[in-house]
Amino acid sequence: MNAIAGIETPRSPVSTRVLQVTQLRVELRDQVDVLSGVSFSLDAGEIVGLVGESGSGKTTLATALLAHARRGARIVSGRVEVAGQGLLELQGEALRQARGSLIGYVAQDPATALNPALRIGGLLRETLAVHQVRLDRAAQQQRIVETLRDVGLPDDPEFLRRFPHQLSGGQQQRVMLALAFVLRPRLIVLDEPTTALDVTTQAHILATLRRLCKSLGVAAVYVSHDLAVIKDLVDRVMVMYAGRLVEIASREALFTRPAHPYTRGLLAAIPDVAQRRELLAIPGHAPAPGQRPAGCAFAPRCSRRRAECSEAEPPLRELVAQQQVACVEPYVQGLQLTPQLPLLATEDSAPRPALLEINGLNLAYDRQVLFDVSLRLLPGECLALVGESGSGKTSLARAVAGLGENAEGELRYAGQPLKLAARQRAAGLRHQIQYIFQNPYRALNPRQSVYQTLSAPLQHFFGIKGPAARERVEAVLKRVSLPASVADLYPHSLSGGERQRVAIARALICEPKLLICDEITSALDVSVQASILALLRQLQAQGLTLLFVTHDLGVVRAIADRVLVLKLGRVVEQGRVDEVLDRPQAAYTQTLLENSPTLA
Predict the structure, then answer these.
(1) What is the CATH code of the structural domain delimited by 18-117+174-325?
(2) What pLDDT, in 10s, does the model give residues 29-61?
(3) H or E element: which one contains 438?
(4) How many CA atoms lie within 13 A of 200 on its CB side?
């Protein structure tokens, strides 16, 4: 279903080594290792995916390839060679020139990586000037035009005069690719560059990257936490856990017969648009630097662990051709994933009254963003809102929560009219509709403990405080699978998954009947995402109604009963999730499905 799948991947009969990493080690203070014993190589035109959970060391390795370590860390040993040049030996101006000319870097968030004060043309010209690319004015302009065409951007003067904020997210990411490729580097490192993009834009970016690497002979390291995203992009996959490479395999070998238990755990946690199946979260958490156990770091989370796993760290060894694994008892058979039935397997024989009804909703800011939207949401049902960025998904969700301005139309909740503004809704009604925001890092007050965050709505809505509030807080933490001790912690002490669970707990403590989830798993590791989706399914089974906003159709398949597809503020298709995803009627829905990553 992915647009990249049809791209040919010609291999040169004579391979040219571009990157050689040997025994790379990065430490924190007191000789606490972040990376240890990392060795691998890349050839010209080869794309390798680097995957693992948050804290596995992916970004540390990616930046170490540029001879850089974050504050508090340092590269203590090993060698990084790009096109025969040792980067770790370079300093000052020589290193600065190598970063860009020899090795390019594409950051995750272009909104923060692009200088907002410079126009697109200025950014490209400055990049060439800083790296002393010796081209006359005409040749420089020709290089910029060719690069913009290569990444699928306009090359006219009007586009070059735009500022980054005047571009879409996909265009900003293409500008990042252009800034890297305009210098014609030998190697490019990409750190989760499509995480926040919708599936169509993501597919176009990945197809562009693959075409450029193959046509220009540029090697690439693509960092990702989602194996499904990179399945049709990469030639090989490197799986990292606790600062070490635990499996390196060709794309075919890794996706057909993953050998390391951790790799299989990552694959089993990924929702797939092609089939609804049971998502299995990996138990436990990845150990932080300084807390990693002796022997195999994954052993405490592994169902196949043996006594010898705790004695010595297993080295990477060749299992079969094009597959290395660091495990004393690797798997040799293929991975079988378990299908799962939806919560509501059949249509109700008799119609039920809707919990939420929307009729003729229109919404405008500086322009109209929703046009005559109507829907019905039944009690205990999960309705997914899907579409590309700018389709109106979040605007619709915020309107239901009473946060949309300039909205017109009719909302009915439990059969009664519902005011469009939250402040105009009855106090006894406001707590019944709760909103969970996309980013748990921004949604929680960093100056308040978890207990303060969760007890505030108790006092506001129900007048509960003191010991009774403490009891309710501990009960809701248990409900989201967090220990009571979390109540006394602050957000900075929690992982991303734990923060999202606290955000869910804050909504649940209000005793809602309708829970609005706005892209709440988009920034999470696949294992954490699986646990959050399992929690939401459990809450739904207990009678909670869900309005789930997402651009990930795999997540839709995993959790939704029905799906509503939005395009530019208009409903183009809606129905039972399996009917829409298996037999889409609208051309727009078909395009979304074709561009969705899948393990099938």
Answers:
(1) 3.40.50.300
(2) 888 999 999 999 999 999 999 999 988 999 999
(3) none
(4) 14
